């Protein structure tokens, strides 16, 4: 699980990082500003941002807006600041911060993040119109030149796709370019 800690006070950020490290978490970045956090987040494929309400260059809401949807945010602030938060998607902990609450919350967020990631991987990817057109053209070419039925052409593309470890559209493009070069 990727974790970025963002506090305007570097000492506070380092103490949160050390708590997480002592309890088996990996902290990918410790930052003072939202811009630093965004740069660090761009190199990662999702995770958790742990931050305070005010950073050196922006407030948590701005940071949340700029983050990719693969990131979850854990906001740490006073009870009044937390109650005024703008979105319910942000998980919040009040100060004074209790170590066990921080660890339990991070564990819960990590579990939710892993489930979302798993669901995203299981969901079939939708093809663009261009990819569908490529596949259709490759099938037509196979049907014309090799006298395949549409089902046979589709199965042929699927088989080649699986053998090559590539997508169906990419395989269709290879078939089209190979058969065009034979002309």
TrEMBL record:
GO molecular function: RNA binding
UniProt domain ANTAR: residue ranges: 115-176
Species, as recorded: Eubacterium plexicaudatum ASF492
Gene3D superfamilies in UniProt: Winged helix-like DNA-binding domain superfamily/Winged helix DNA-binding domain (1.10.10.10)
Pfam families: ANTAR
Protein name, UniProt field: ANTAR domain-containing protein
Database matches in SMART domains: ANTAR
């Amino acid at each position: 699980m990727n974790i970025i800690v963002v506090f305007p006070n570097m000492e506070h950020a380092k103490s949160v990082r050390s708590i997480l490290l002592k309890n088996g978490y990996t902290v990918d970045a410790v930052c003072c500003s939202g811009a630093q956090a965004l740069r660090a987040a761009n190199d990662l494929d999702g995770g958790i941002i742990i931050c305070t309400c005010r950073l050196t260059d922006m407030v948590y809401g701005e940071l949340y807006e700029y983050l990719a949807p693969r990131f979850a945010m854990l906001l740490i602030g006073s009870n009044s600041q937390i109650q005024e938060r703008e979105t319910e998607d942000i998980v919040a902990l009040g100060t004074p911060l209790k170590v066990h609450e921080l660890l339990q919350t991070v564990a819960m967020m990590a579990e939710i993040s892993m489930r979302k990631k798993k669901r995203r991987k299981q969901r079939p990817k939708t093809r663009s119109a261009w990819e569908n057109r490529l596949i259709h053209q490759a099938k037509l070419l196979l049907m014309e030149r090799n006298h395949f039925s549409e089902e046979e052409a589709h199965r042929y593309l699927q088989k080649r796709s699986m053998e090559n470890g590539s997508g169906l559209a990419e395989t269709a493009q290879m078939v089209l370019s190979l058969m065009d070069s034979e002309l």
